[in-house]
Amino acid sequence: MVNKRINIIIGIAALLAMAFYFNSGQNEESISKSLDLTTVKVLKGNLEKKEEYNGTIRQVDKSSIKSSLMGVITYLPKEGSVIQFGEVLYSVDGKPVVLLEGKIPYYRTLDMTSDGGLDIKQLEDSMIDMGYSSSEFVADEIFDESTSNMLNALYMEYGIETKSEITPAEQIAINTKRDELEIIEENISNGLITLVQVDQKKKTWDDSVEDAKKESTAWQAAKTEIERLQDEIKELPFQALSEDTRTARKENFEFDIQEQERIQVKEAGKESGIDADEALIIENAKTAYENALESYNEGAKQEANLEKAQEELANLELLAQSETFSPTNALSLKSPINVGSHVVKVGDTIVAGSSMYTSSGIAREVTFNLPARDQGMVSIGDNVVVKLPTDKKIGAVVRFVDVVVTETNNGSKVIEVILDVVGAENTETYDEAPVDVLVTSEVSENVLYVPVNALIALAEGGYAVEVLSGGEKLFIAVEIGVFTDGFVEIVGNIQEGQEVIVPR
């Protein structure tokens, strides 16, 4: 298109030049009047040569909005409208569902008893953006009183049922739990035994066993000594002693044996280690310990029951005053949406999970095929220009450049390039529409340039521009460079700011 325009201009300019040369008797003033000329200044700056490719603009994030509620549809947005964050997606039985910004789907009921999580922070961030928080509030992962208050403000604005006071059912549950606490506390106060007392019973048991072992040791020691003395007597006949000496030693050994036997008699019943009396003492001590331990464990169990009941009471009291966020109250999406075609209509009865209408994100992307020979011209992050069907130009950024070369039906080798449109809010009506993609292929920096139609083709070849200097018209030969957006680079005996004649 540009080349065609240039050829027409050059043709006109050639005719003008010929008229200038072959009709030299016509004065400059009459020429100016007949051709209706104007002037522009020679400019200086950067010129970018752009290559033009055919592309397609299309919607992204196409989906379907599904109901999280069951009932009768009472509100649907208009087809083609845009739903921003904080606006109502639909209503069922008069209950609105609000669009909130977020990447995490809301999957659980949230209140002041909920464990911390990123979904809580996401909810708080959304309410901050919607203006429901105080200036000093900072979003975190904890659902607390501040979160509850923000929810209450949101619910009141959108007509969602709010937590206004403790219900009779909630009060009954609280009272019942309080009664349970009193019973547990009474049981603990009546039968609690301390761990110190348990340890004392265990020590009594251990001491009785140790005492029995000590007495058993005395009996065993006497038995061992008797056996040693008997062995000594057996060895006497084989020792080199006089008969009198042997007799005397035997009598001493026998006397010692009698003494050890008297010890055994005193420790009668210790052959097994522990006698009946000691066994009874040990058993009684063991039973006392086991009873104490059982009592302590029961007390510990009661204390655990007490702690659990206290926690349950605290949760009931929190729930009674906390707003509750249900996943049915809102839908989290990464961007506002365009409303597509309705699947249902107001007044229809639906079940949860039913499709309400089609949708897409407000973002738009452009795809085009870049000839393989030109693949070095674009890189991810590059800025390019997209010309819409209305000839309006918008910006875009290269998001994807394929590394695989494919072959089209006509045998051309191309690579796919995807662009993210900048300012997509001006392109909501376009989907699968043809566009032109303008990619910079050459840049001339700090050059002189004029409008393309200021060029004059000379009869002898080359180009010139007609300038006004001191009230006179002069033709100055120039060399041309980059053409772009109706301008052309010129090089010659010419300066920035000079007046150049351009046909109107």
Q: Ends: how far apart?
A: 20 Å
What is the tally of helical segments? 8
Q: Overall 3D geometry?
A: elongated
Low-confidence stretches: 1-35
**Biggest sheet: strands side by side, in what order?**
2-12-16-14-13-17
Structure description:
The chain has helices at 2-22, 28-35, 118-129, 145-158, 168-191, 195-235, 243-266, 276-321, and strands at residues 37-41, 43-59, 63-66, 71-75, 82-83, 88-92, 95-101, 330-333, 337-342, 349-350, 355-361, 364-371, 383-387, 393-401, 406-407, 413-421, 433-451, 456-457, 463-469, 472-484, 487-492, 499-503. With 504 residues, the chain is an alpha+beta fold. Helix 6 (195-235) packs antiparallel against helix 7 (243-266). The longest helix is centred in the middle third of the chain and has 46 residues, at 276-321. The protein is elongated, with a radius of gyration of 51 Å.
